[in-house]
Specification:
SHC Adaptor Protein; 4-stranded mixed sheet; 3 helices; alpha+beta; 2 domains; 28% helix; Double Stranded RNA Binding Domain
């Protein structure tokens, strides 16, 4: 087995990241690396922030094109780090076999485009009384099948997921329904006639 490299980046927003807090976060997320032993390079981002009196920890794992995210809010930053890390561990346990199978297939095939998110700039609206777009996200989408899109959506903890359907080469939107099932939105062109 090749030696594993886990790169952990700890950042703070509205909080001073002390050496003790940084060390705790790094050690806590490193415990999860046992689940990623087949990976040569794992990147982990830990964003610690404070909003009013709420301590927020957001942990994001980057495994090639696969993203896993856990977030927690509490009165104590250490508890938030623990809970966010625990959320990711539950996701990994639930999807471990599917993740490993997907990763092995990815390694066998050529390196495909990496799905990355980049935060966009806030957009100012003229009319303050109407709802407005306050954030734009841009990300590269890669072709995947519906099962992989479901797994990715669940790992991110989102209620919807935009992806390129590998079977149709169309952009689709997958969403979680209130009954626990999933819905799929496929685009069609309106008849012009």
């Amino acid at each position: 087995m090749a030696s594993q490299t886990v790169r952990v980046t700890v950042k703070g927003k509205n909080i001073q990241v002390t050496p003790a807090l940084r060390d705790y976060a790094e050690k806590r997320v490193a415990k999860l690396s046992k689940y990623f032993q087949w990976r040569q390079d794992v990147q982990v981002e830990v964003m610690l922030s404070v909003e009013r009196d709420t301590q927020i920890a957001e942990i994001t794992y980057h495994l090639g094109g696969l993203l896993m995210r856990g977030e927690s809010r509490s009165k104590d930053m250490y508890a938030s780090i623990d809970e966010a890390s625990d959320k990711i561990e539950r996701q990994v346990r639930k999807y471990k076999n599917k993740i490993q199978q997907r990763e092995h297939e990815t390694l066998r095939m050529s390196n495909s485009a990496v799905q990355a998110e980049a935060a966009g700039a806030d957009v100012q609206a003229e009319d303050e009384s109407r709802p407005r777009v306050v954030r734009t996200k841009r990300f590269a989408i890669k072709p995947m099948d519906i099962e992989e899109a479901i797994m990715q959506m669940e790992l991110l903890g989102h209620d919807f997921f935009v992806f390129a359907n590998a079977n149709t080469d169309e952009v689709n939107v997958l969403y979680k329904r209130k009954d626990g099932n999933y819905g799929l939105i496929e685009p069609t062109l309106e008849d012009e006639g």
